[in-house]
Every structure is written in structure tokens, then in C-alpha cells.
Fold this sequence. Notes:
Strand order of the largest sheet of chain A: 1-2-3
Number of helices of chain A: 18
Shape of chain A: globular
CATH superfamily of the domain at 3-97 in chain B: NADH:ubiquinone oxidoreductase Nqo5 subunit
Order of helices and strands of chain B: HEEHEEEEHE
Shape of chain B: globular
Distance between the termini of chain A: 53 Å
CATH class of the domain at 3-97 in chain B: Alpha Beta
Structural class of chain B: alpha/beta
Largest sheet of chain A: 3 strands, antiparallel
Oligomer: heterodimer
Radius of gyration of chain A: 24 Å
Number of strands of chain B: 7
CATH topology of chain A: Cytochrome-c3 Hydrogenase, chain B
Largest sheet of chain B: 5 strands, mixed
Strand order of the largest sheet of chain B: 1-2-5-4-3
Helix content of chain B: 10-25%
Strand content of chain A: 5-15%
CATH architecture of chain A: Orthogonal Bundle
Amino acid sequence: MSSAAETIAADFDAIDEPLETQMTLSMGPQHPSTHGVLRLDLRLDGELVVKAIPDIGYLHTGMEKLFEYKKYQQGIVITDRMDYLNPLGNNLAYVMAAEKLLQLEIPERAQVVRVLMCELQRIASHMVWLGTHCLDIGAMSVFFYCFRQREKILNLIEAASGGRMTPSYFRIGGLMMDLPAGFDRRVRQFMDDFPEAMDTFNTLVTGNRIWQSRTKDIGYISKEDAISWGLTGPCLRASGVDLDLRRDNPYTGYETYDFDIPVETGGDVWARFMVRMRELEESYKIVRQALERLKPGPIKADAPKVVLPDRDDMRKHMDSLIHHFLIVAEGFNVPPGEVYHAIEASKGELGVYMKSNGGPKPERVHFRGPSFVNLSALPIMSEGEMVADVVAIIGSLDIVLGEIDR
Amino acid sequence: MTEKLHEFVETLKSANPEWVGDVKDALGEVTVTVPREHIFAACEFLRDSLGFDMLADLCGGDRGPEEDPRFEVNYHLFSTTHHKRLRLKVLLSEDDPKVESVVPLWKTADWHERETYDLVGVVFENHPDLRRILLPSDFDGHALRKDYPLRGYEPYSMN
Lengths: 406, 159
């Protein structure tokens, strides 16, 4: 027998003893529970995961390169496509970084609207998380209840900005346009119905014993590991670290709102679930407060060289027309400098590093996506767990591949 | 607003003056340029003695082919206790874009460094698994370099 034949024969012997060997399973990139195009290389010992290696990049579209070729105001549109479940959060992080470079003062009403819209978006994002997380584990019907609520929020966002998933509503210096008439009434209507929906979710999921046994003590990560792996947002708070950038690095006036930061110490899938469920109630509180604060006023900063003028002004004033032409045709120059601005997006710390060289286009824009960092901790959460639990762990991380691959 | 950060920089400087190069305070953020051979030691000191226990972000950048040093790596440190942010910057020349990896200090640096290697071409020494992460493994060139074209499949060449 030749040596090649001997190796093949040896391999066959190994297959005859399946319990003695480890198997490599390629999960994804088209697996529905990977929330996009994520591939996992799982090394399995029976049903136990020995090693998990995430493989990303299937959705890479070179957005960071594209920013360098677009004017500052054109970049906002790209950010919508990153974390497509939380586009207003991405808009906010990007425009605030640019505003920091330009040192703009944002009027009160614009700030309140930003908080209002971001918290609505956070609820919508958590609705998708809850729906898909339950769907992954096998609870089909929750998905429909969640998407019904999300649909209402998307309608609100559409009413304000014209886009459901790609709003580009926040602009450098303020808002695209003011809220439509009767918007606060529509938000109140949604808010009045929402507690009932929360009760439905709690009845369907939280108190469900199957749900609890599928999530408790699964995918554990300790406090020290969570910090070392850079987890942020609900994943970090579920490991017992009391950190929320809305309170600890406040922006757009979050320090003036009254809300609690839910913290759990379990560090498992159940803890991450509970943190997000309680966060929904906190967002609800913030939206209520923001609605109370909506007072008429300017929605754009007083910076004619940066902010597009009103249509009416353009018809009456020559200089407004010139500014409009210059902003659209050439853009505006941003003073040289570099900033890192981080906000608490629905999934964690969304940071934008922006470097300007004085021209109308940024020299470098880098997004620190919370999904990217949270996913990198998947191996240590899933090693030692069962294959079926990996699906639960991915769901509890709440990742969006559009942001990971950028 | 940045007094506390300047205190940290002074402590860093008193621990080892060689660690701190240029210190810049702009737009409420403090940037410390660290010589590349000292980045690991400076990070370790900041993490263990000054409470910067989280590496919020690590990103590379290309300052342009005509610049020298051409590349930079930014470390955005964050503290989960006192909630301050500090940026460390390492400048690297085009001929030798190498810097020591900080993965032993923060596990999160693993993917950030792979991304920086992939897109900018900075090599992190002692990194446990320095492979491309976003682009395919047989990709040629580094896409975020300024001389890499926005469109087209071949790296830009002067010839």
C-alpha cells in the first residue's frame, strides 16, 4: 500500500470513531440566526464548542474610505447604512463629531428633538433585538408583536424625516427640518399603547420557564473579562459594570433627564436580556420627559456658512442664496484637528474618530462600532457551551453586521 | 475640563519622562504622542496606575505618502471608574511601520489591530494572530492608504 493510501485509511479509521474526534462546523454566512452575514468556525467535541472563530467581512463596503471622498454633510447618508437598526444614533455620533470640530452651539429645541428621536430609535432597535433573539431560540410569535411596535416607530421616523430606515435626520448644526404638525400627539399615542405591549412581552418571554432555562447560565462573561474585551452598552452592564455614557459622558443634554441605569450582575444571556428589557422602560421615561420639553424655537445653529439656510430666506436675501450655493457646491471648511466622540447607541459605545485637515472633506473618519467589539468577545462566551446555545449568545449580543464590516 | 487629564499626563511623565513626547490639548481632548518603543509600557502604566482600564478604540491612519512619519496609530483609552478619555498617538515611518501589540493588556485590541493591519498596513509585533479581518486574505495592498484608489481593483502605481 502506498503512503497516500495509508493516510486515507487512517482517516477512515478516525471517522469510524466519531466520539474520539473533533468536528469543524462552519456556521453561516447564510445562517438566519447569525443576523446577517457572519460565519463562525466552530470546533466541536460532540455538541460542545471547543473553539469558536468568527469570520467577518462579507458585508465590507469600504465606508471609511468613502468618507474621505465625500464632503462632511454627504457623510451623514453613509452612516445610515452602518447600524441599520439604529441609524439616528449613527447620525448623531457623526454630526456631533463634526460639530465638535466646528465648535457649534446647538439650539435647545434641536437637542430635545435629538434625544426624543434617539430614544424612540433605541426602542425600535431593542424591538428587533427582542424579536430576533426569541425567534433564534424558537419563540416565533414574539417576533410579530415586536415588529408591530417597531413599525409604529418607523412610521414616526418617516413622518419626521421621510425615510424609514435611512432617515439622515440630524444634520451638522441641527436638524434636517422641524417636526411635522401633530407629531407629539402621534408619539403620545404610541407611548400610551406601549406599556401594554411591554406587558405582552413580559408575559410571553420573561416569565416563560423554557425561555429562562435556555438563557440562564449561558454565555457567561465576568466583569474583568468584559472590560478587557471592551464590551460596552447592555452587554457590559449585564456583567455588573455600572457604565452608561448618557450619564457618564453626557451629550445633547442627557444629564438633565431623569432615568435609571439598569445593571445586572449575572453576566449571562439572561442578564443581558433583563438589562435590555429594563432599558426599554428607561427609554420610555426619557421620551415622556422629552415630549414635555418640546418648545418652539430654532432647530438650526446660527452658523450661515455651515447650516443650509431656509428656503424663505433664500428668496429674500442675497447672502443666504450665496451661502446655499457655496455649501452645496463646495462644502464648508472644517478647522484642522481631531476628535473622538462617543455616544451610547442602542448596542453600546458608538465612537467616531474624525480628523480634519482644514478642507471640506475629512482626512480620516473611523467608526468604533459597538457590534464589532462585542462580537470579538463571542469566542470566550461560547467556548464550553452547546452548539444550540451559540445561537442564543449571538442573539444576546445584538449585533448588526452592517456596522461590523462597514 | 482637561485639568484632571493634564494631571494624569504629569504623573505619566514623572514615572518615565521618555514615555511622553508631544502633549496637545484641543477641543477638550488631550493627545499624548508616545515614542513607539514605549507604547506598551506607557499603556501598562496608564492601565494599572491611573485607572484607564478600557481601550475604547484603536485606529490607524495614513497622513499621506509625502508625510514623514507617514502613519499614525491612535489609542483611545477610557476609564470605567473616573470616565475620562485620553488619546495616545504613535507615529510610524513608511519604511518601518511596526509597533508593539497591546493585546496582552486589552483583549479588545486583537480585532482593532487586525483591522488596522488590514486597512492601513501597520504591523503589530507580538500580536497572537495578525491576519486580515475585513478584506479577503489574498487581497493586495491596504485600502485606507491615501495612494490606494477609491475605485479599481489594482493598487495605484506611479508607473
